[in-house]
Write a structure and sequence with these properties.
- Helix content is 75%, strand content 2%.
- The chain is mostly helical.
- The strands form two sheets. The chain has a two-stranded antiparallel sheet with strand order 1-4. It has a two-stranded antiparallel ribbon with strand order 2-3.
- The chain is globular.
Length: 353
């Protein structure tokens, strides 16, 4: 007996058409899903999930001590200072740079803003202290930008030099003494709240919103991303790359000044030791948030989520009386995982082009 044979459907038959339609739909669905998870919104989902998991862990391990409004407000206040610093860092890293000096610059701004002469001048107008702190940060950023853009010094080395110099200047000005803030108007404002939420948190939110608009809806933001993606091509397109680089470091210094006033209000003291290792926390939050270390892609929303992730992690560990050593190990693991995921997404994007 002969075995039955099957004849493949003709290319023009209905079966072949249906098969090709199914294959086409599935491939289209896969490509859409890949594009979504490679987008900023898709990457943010992972951060949101990680944040929710941390909240659940905190609820299970610490109970009502963790799951209450006051504790969540504490997390937000702790995240606000480093969050403002990280937002400025996002712009610099998006353009392919780095700023290791933000912590020292922050300490310098607290020292200058809390000087007796500045507080006396600001006795009738306390925002003067804020303006002075921001001005100091912008000047430090200007020096960084000029050395990097026009002096052609590698950003790592230039900002490392500013890290040391700013801390030294702060020590010289303060004579290594802690300067107490006694401006009542300044302290009363930052200690007050609006709708039950501290003004420090509102400042963080306002800075984040303005930064998102600047990065995503303006020519300045598009040029920042373009410089990080391909500096030479951007220069050939007519963008003044060196001048824009100076602006970026001034922006980063300015956010360090804002964060300095926030920290000054919380500690009521200006000292050269403020801001220690803040640059590492800021870079970690930016990288975990999805901004590429090599430049060309940045996300303010991801940076905010990264800051909240680390702040929540610290709070959960504190609530459970875990050592700071364990916290550092956990942060290190998160950073490594984030960098590995960045490399994977970058490879996918480059292979798909």
């Amino acid at each position: 007996m002969s075995e039955p044979t099957t004849t493949p459907p003709a290319p023009g038959s209905d079966v072949a058409g249906a098969t090709s339609t199914v294959v086409g739909d599935s491939s289209a669905t896969q490509s859409h899903s890949k594009r979504f998870f490679a987008s900023a919104a898709g990457r943010s989902i992972g951060l949101v999930i990680a944040l929710v998991v941390l909240v659940i862990v905190g609820a299970v391990t610490a109970g009502d001590t963790f799951m209450n409004v006051d504790n969540f407000l504490v997390i937000l206040r702790l995240a606000s200072v480093i969050g403002v610093v990280a937002i400025g860092m996002t712009f610099v890293i998006t353009a392919g740079g780095i700023d290791l000096s933000v912590g020292s610059v922050l300490g310098l701004t607290t020292v200058v803003a809390s000087l007796g002469a500045v507080q006396t001048a600001a006795s009738g107008f306390w925002p003067l202290m804020v303006f002075v702190a921001i001005a100091v940060g912008v000047i430090a950023g200007l020096v960084n930008g000029l050395v990097i853009a026009y002096g052609k010094v590698v950003a790592f080395m230039a900002t490392l030099a500013m890290l040391v110099a700013a801390r030294g200047v702060a020590e010289l000005i303060s004579q290594r003494q802690t300067q107490v803030v006694n401006n009542s108007g300044f302290l009363d404002f930052f200690r007050s709240d609006f709708l039950g939420i501290s003004w420090v948190v509102w400042i963080f939110a306002i800075v984040a919103i303005l930064a998102w608009v600047l990065l995503n809806r303006t020519t300045f933001g598009r040029r920042t991303v373009a410089i990080g993606g391909n500096e030479n091509a951007t220069r050939l397109a007519g963008v003044k790359v060196r001048r824009h680089t100076v602006y970026l470091y001034m922006l980063c210094g300015g956010t360090a000044g804002i964060a300095g006033t926030m920290l000054l209000s919380r500690t009521t003291a200006g000292t050269s030791t403020h801001g220690g290792l803040y640059e590492l926390d800021a870079i970690a939050a930016v990288v975990v948030g999805g901004t590429l270390l090599i430049g060309g892609r940045g996300t303010i929303g991801g940076t905010v989520l990264g800051v909240l992730l680390f702040a929540t992690l610290t709070n959960v560990f504190t609530q459970n009386n875990m050592s700071t050593s364990v916290q550092l190990v956990a942060k290190g693991i998160i950073i490594v995982v984030a960098v590995l995921l960045q490399q994977r997404f970058a490879n996918r994007e480059s292979s798909s082009k």
